[in-house]
Batch of 3 targets.
Target 1
Amino acid sequence: MEEMIVNVKNYFIKLEQMILRIFEDQLRKHTCLKINMELFGYYYNPSTDNHDVKSFNTPFKVICNSAKTKDVIEEFATVIDNKADEFAEKDSGWILLNFIHLEININKFNPLRASSFIELPPEIVRRQAVVNIRNNDDYCFAWSIMAALHTPTGVDFVTSSYPHYSTGLNTAGINFPITLKDIKKFENQNNISINVYGLEKYYNKNSNNEEYEVIGPLHFTNAKKNIHVNLLLINDDDGNLHYCYISDLSKLISKQLSKHNGRKYLCEGCLQYFDTEQKLQYHNSYDCDHVKINLPSKELVKDRYGNVAYENKY
């Protein structure tokens, strides 16, 4: 039987646009997705004259905006390609004849309620960009907001360094531990805008270590206000969740950015960076997945090319 030359990455390239459309369609329906893939191939073993189906899968990964989907596809292709190569190198005698199909498993990712204290991974602690309040109640969200609003009177991670949340926040009608869907109500009651990000663990082949990257936003505010707070939602192995205050978002995700040496202008909606403020503004207006709210103005509206827009005629 003539051996067919089959390449995993070329197979993914062929399917990339279809996969992107699937992801983007699901992300319009759900805030975040938890996905993995499994590639099935048809194999032949000439020493035994047997045929069989083999498959190689990826770990699950959380994505919360379409800007990350292409990177996820490339990452999954690499994982499956490596597994297929490892299988072939084990002197199994099996020869890949062709791919049968790619199975994509998509689950809605909906974090549960967050409550009492959870330790941050040491790698995140070293970045010195997150304040993790050591609360012993269900109000880690409220304590994190207080940490954002007030200068601590003592060490920044204890509740006694801040005014009690009941003295400065309107939590009427909001159940704690708070869910992501209730944050909008909290924003409206307190005239505060809030973005929430998450952490995802992955294996870095170059460093041979497990590392973390910031994902999200899991919750993205409808309109950024004068008082704006970024929060980090973390979890432990038992599924418990906990909010922390992000004191410096750019510093927190700096490891994920390219080795650009100049100043970075960060989009909080998709965690991309730009080397000029003008490029960031253009991105926010036309390219970002999240809608930018424009307040009424007497200035003429211009389109993306700088021309007077059609809206001015009305």
Target 2
Amino acid sequence: MAFIRDKWVERLRDGTAAPSWPVHLVAVVLVLGAPALIVAEFRSPAFVAEMARSSRVGSVVLVELLLVVVGFAMSIGTWWSGRRGRRVLARIRASGHRPAFFLPVLTKGIRRSEDLPRPRPEVWTIDPDGLHGWTPDRDAPVFDVPWARIGRISLASKDSRGARVDYAIWFGLDADSSLVLTPRTSLGRPFEAGPGGLETLLPVVRALRRELDHRPRPRSPAR
């Protein structure tokens, strides 16, 4: 496999989940820190007077309240994703499957045409046979995509504020179809990898294909 320098990619190779405590720590800071800041602000006569004169101050308070909601959402999302991620890993290991790489993904595509039938895989594994999609509730993969069906591997992009932004790994399949997977940063976390993470993952997935796909390559015609 291509040399991996990023710790989060190493964890995907090894099938280990990232620790959840850093996310929960940030969530605690947001949930406790924002209300404490609001209380301190309202204890200031100058702040209260400015709030009565300007609506912008009220907007600041709303942003601080939004941070509390974000903190709760981060913590709950990480707990839920971690719980389901551990179940998927347990299913994979109980099956005797020995993947070379684990690719956690978002189950909802950007476009409806990219959505897979339910149950949608939450983790894809990569091995010499191809790609396999797993869910927390099934003992076997719900999708199998052999290397023979996969052609080009690239990035899928979308329009965002007048610019093209990469959002997923695109696998060109036979019969003019495709498989579009939006990776997450880690097993057990709900966060999307984003354009920077995709640039790191794409060469890794391509290298895995070169190393694991042992089908004979067609020879170039003799000159």
Target 3
Amino acid sequence: MYRVEVCLKSQLPDARGLGLVKDIQDLGITSVASVRVIDIYWLDAEATSDELDTICRQLLADPLTQEYRFSRLATDTAPTHSPEANNSAHVVEVAYNPGVTDPVEDTVMKAIDDLGIGGVRAVKTAKRYLIEGRLAKGELETISSRLLVNPIIQHIVERFHFPGNPEYHFQLNEVDISGADIGRQFGFNPAELYAIIGYFQREGRRPTDVELETLAQTWSEHCVHKTFKGRIRLGETTIDNLLKSTIMKATDELAKPWCLSVFNDNAGVIDFDGRWALCFKVETHNHPSAVEPYGGAATGVGGVVRDPLGTGLGAKPILNTDVFCFAPPDLPYERLPR
């Protein structure tokens, strides 16, 4: 197993680190002088020094702005000491949890293969933070939990090893939905739960766990948009189906001829010049973002790109636009999403 460290050259400012210093100050911690960020790559590989040097030089590091080093380590090892870190630096190394997709892994594996280098079985990544400054008890934990680690998908590395592929033996289980708190477990409201119980009573059997998971996913807020489609009461006013009463209603009433396809496919299509059409898609991702704000927003971007590809015979994505949404300006910092 090899460990590769890639960092900015010491004379260059670390933009990621400077941003973290500002974020740390926003937490009320003012004793941090600097932060340096190092990209870590773990390679489960049998490779020569020349091959590793080629991977680092041509793929993992920019020779103009970055420098790299690699070393061979045991298969189960603690993070090594970085030469950039002096004795006063606090070191935090963060990696993805086992089972979480590492978005860089597949790209690096394919790029290594494109270089004509074999023998690399797996790649994992991590980030190493070198935090300079005197920290009071508990402040490093505050910095880590609020800014560096998302515990839903990440963890602080103490000892690293490549996780093996878990053995999975499929077993179909029936679920007793009469006594368990199935509604809370799967997110069903009372009406949905009664409908499910009634259906399987008529079928004369219990549902399987796969069937319940399928219903939970299909009837979820994310897939069905219950809030958008629901009945909203505001004072004495009742809005029946918020989506149809606002956005869809305005579009239908305007009935513009250049609206070629609206609310019919994965994305909307408008005429551009009589020959070309433009495909537009927006994502809310309210529910995923409520569960995990940053990951939910990131996967929303994926949906924005995916849905035009699935519109008609397939549109070609050319750009993303950016939208800024702001919470109340007086919202206390401790209530911001972690």
